[in-house]
Structures are given as C-alpha cells and as structure tokens.
Amino acid sequence: MSKSGIFSTSKLVAAAAAGLLLTVTACSSQGGAQSAPAAPGAAGGKQYTIAVITHEGPGETFFDRIRAGAEQAAKQHGVTLKYSNDPDVGKQSTLIENAIDSKVDAIASTMPNPDTIGPELQKAGAAGIPTVAINSGIDSYQKYGAKMFFGSDESLAGQAAGQRLAKEDGGSSGKVLCVVHSAGVQTLETRCAGVKQSFPNTENIQVNGQDLASVQQTLQSKLLQDPSITAIVTLDAGVATAAMQAEQAANSKAKLVTFDLNQDVVQAIKDKKIDFSIDQQPYLQSYEAVDSLWLYLTNGNVLGGGKPVLTGPAFVDSTNIDAVATYAANNTR
Fold it and tell me: How far is residue 234's CA from residue 257's CA, in Å, rounded to a whole number?
C-alpha cells in the first residue's frame, strides 16, 4: 500500500474524531452554544476498559511499538488499557478468556494462528464484547466476528520486497534467503511466500528469534555453506541485526533487507548496511485499534466498512530515512 493510502486512513480517523467534537459543541438555532452531556469515555462519562492481547515473546522489540501505540490512544481517550501477551497461542487464547471473564468493554488481539485465536474472539462477541484484529489474521478476522483489522497485507508486502530485490539485481538470477524467526506464525510464512512469488529462487530458513546469538550462528553457517545467496530477507528488526553480524563474520556480500524498524536498523540504513526496510507501522496498528474501538463504543463507528485497514507496506530506505529516524527514536515508527 502507498504512503498516501496510509495517510488517508489517518485522515479518516481524524475526521471521525472531529465529527464527535462537533456533536459535543454544537450551537443552538438561536446561535448560543449549548452544553451537552459528556461523551462516554470522556471526563465525567463511563470509564471504558480495552484489552490488547498479543503474541509478543521475550526480546521482541517490535511489540514495544505495538504497546506504545495502544497506550497513547488509551491515554487520549481516558481508557483503561489492559495489555497482556504470550508467544504460545494456547496461552494467548487463555489471556483472551481472562479478558472476557473480567468483563472488559472491548478486545484487540493479534491472530498468529487464527484457528486457535479466532474461536476465543467469537466467544467475546457472543458475550457482547466487540473485537478487532491487529497485525495478523487479515484473511480470517471476519470469519470470527472481529469488526475491524489493522495491519499490513503480508503477501503483498513480501511480493513488494521480492520485486524490489529482483529489480535492483537486474532480474531474479540470484538467491534469496528468507529468515523465519518464530515457528507456527502464519504471517511470517506468508511474507516469505510473497517474496518467493516475486523472486522464485527463495529459500526459507528457520531460526529461534528469541536467541539472537543462535540466529547469528545459524545464518553465518548457512552463508559459508551456500555462497550463491545474494540477498537475505529478515522478518524482524532484531533478527536483522543478527543477520548483519553473520554477514560480517562470513564475509558475505549478500544484500540485507528487513521488515520493520528499530534504532539499529535505522542506523544501518543510514550506513548502507541494510538496503531497505518494509515498514508495517506497528504503532499505527495498535493506536488505530484502540482509537477505533473507542469510537465504536461511543459512537457506533466501524472504520473501513469492516474491510482491512492497511498500515503497510511502505519502504524505508536511504531516500527517506532521515525523516523517519526521529519518529523511530520516539518509539512510534
């Protein structure tokens, strides 16, 4: 998705928020300002509680921005935020059950394995608790009754990465290594499948993203074993740092690209050690999830007509890294 599309989504949310403000401050036919009751969720109104539940694992800095976006939206709307996480989808399902039992007003959840997470979201809906999906589950969220989805089209993102690599290399004559850092997470497999669709000579390699030292060792061994690799695609910013170290140790000249950002990746793009990042804007995903659930609870709004609201993919490279760097330093990109 283009950046203009992403900015249009933000404008839509801003317009909805502006509409609520106009309702509260509407003037009477006589021209005098009339006071209106406080909107639910505002000062003096109902205090809403929204649960955000993710498959975040230890050391996965990507989710720092997911949490930051949710916290900012909750702060702006006076919402009580309950954030919880577990990389085990069975335990994540239990967290959703706990949120239902505690009678939260709404739930936003990632769907790394829709067959496991989806039925729990259905239970929430049956209990009268509106849900949205974030980050993963784009093909399944509607099946399980989630009202909205905020995230990237991972197949499209992978295809875009593969197309760019093929174009920069003058064709897909080289070999891409796609690094899957978490087993059983369908979005990661979908990204690599998208890369392979555009760059057929793509091989997946499984690593343990929660142990970056082992990631480096595994990739270093692979690069030494297979000098035909011309590009590496990592699916996480932290894994990208380990891949960069592996390349240096193996004296590999393979091009390195990654999904997502952190300050190390920002600096590596500036230093031209990483060619580009495919940014899905995780801060925006959770911010819009909490913001839109608040709008649904207070005004019945459904953003995007129930269709996926895309926050990516967008490329970050040497042409725009300086503008993005400031936001990355603030943990919002």
Answer: 7
Instruction: Tell me the pLDDT tens digit for each residue of 22-42.
Output: 333 333 333 333 333 444 444
CA distance 236 to 273: 16
Name the residue among 110, 70, 85 with its Cα closest to residue 283.
Answer: 70
The residues near 111 (Cβ < 8 Å, ≥ 6 apart) are: 117, 118, 121, 133, 135, 136, 137, 140, 141, 144
Question: For the packed helices 282-299 and 3-24, what is the interaxial angle rounded to 10 degrees?
Answer: 30
Upstream peptide bond of 308 is cis (omega within 30 degrees of 0): no
Checking DSSP bridges between strand 314-316 and strand 276-279, what pairing results, if any? antiparallel
Alpha helices, DSSP H only, in 199-281?
A: 212-225, 237-250, 263-270
pLDDT one-digit tens code per residue, 33-77: 333 344 444 444 689 999 999 999 887 888 999 999 999 999 999
- Alpha helices by DSSP H, listed for the chain, are 3-24, 62-77, 89-101, 114-126, 154-168, 186-198, 212-225, 237-250, 263-270, 282-299, 321-329
pTM for this entry: 0.79
